[in-house]
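Incident review: delayed structure delivery

Summary: a single-chain prediction request sat in the queue longer than the usual turnaround. Root cause was a stuck worker, restarted by the on-call engineer. No data loss occurred. The affected request and its eventual output are reproduced below so the record is complete for anyone auditing the incident later.

Affected input:
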Amino acid sequence: MGANPKLVMQAKGLVKRYGQVTALDGADFELRAGEILAVIGDNGAGKSSLIKALSGATIPDAGELLLDGKPVHFRSPIDARRAGIETVYQDLAVAPAMSIAENLFLGRELRRPGFLGSVLRMLDKKKMLEESIARMQELKVGIRSMTQPVETLSGGQRQCVAVGRAAAFAQHVVIMDEPTAALGVKEGNMVLDLIRRVRDRGLPVVLISHNMPHVFEVADRIHVARLGKRAAVLNPRKISMSDTVAVMTGAMPPESIPSECLAH
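Output delivered after worker restart:
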């Protein structure tokens, strides 16, 4: 990566309180063009609250969110989607009985042209199928038939459909919440390869993960969330996994991290 590529998404001083609990306590966040940014943190570190704020699922009490340098205010996940931010949640939100093509266009179905679509609301199934095949081929997702129901797929293939759907529609950012959590080694690697391809097509990826080997395998930078703030941003090529865990748990205070281990 060159010298500090442009910031695609930025959060400054986000605060989110739930009654007496402060989930975000002045959290900062920076996502650059063309990178995979891993977000890690212990339970209660504020990483899920941060992701919810970035994806429009919660509205911060204070702070600022910027997309391409311009302030944005998401009132719902639909607002974030309209701004080109797609999120793949852990529970996938795929409809098992529907085909892969139908799942890819779930909630954004294409209508037939003219009277059939506008008045009779008929779906353009042929076009959706053609586009689904093209999108999945582009991402090199090896699925035999786009008409098969999602319930016939393995866990890894389902995850690839969910990631493929996000990558197909995202204009700006893809956020992935624990995408390899329930998968075996082979299927996990399949999803990691897909995440790399999404980045290589020019979309920055935010990867939330507990799986440190996966984080170190694909991340360009690692954002460490701790106690509702950003503790540090680390360079996975310069810092060890054990030191990263030490920063995450608070055993290594941010000021004692060697400067070459920080991602600039």
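Verification: The chain is about 30% helix and 25% strand.
Action items: add queue-age alerting; document worker restart procedure.
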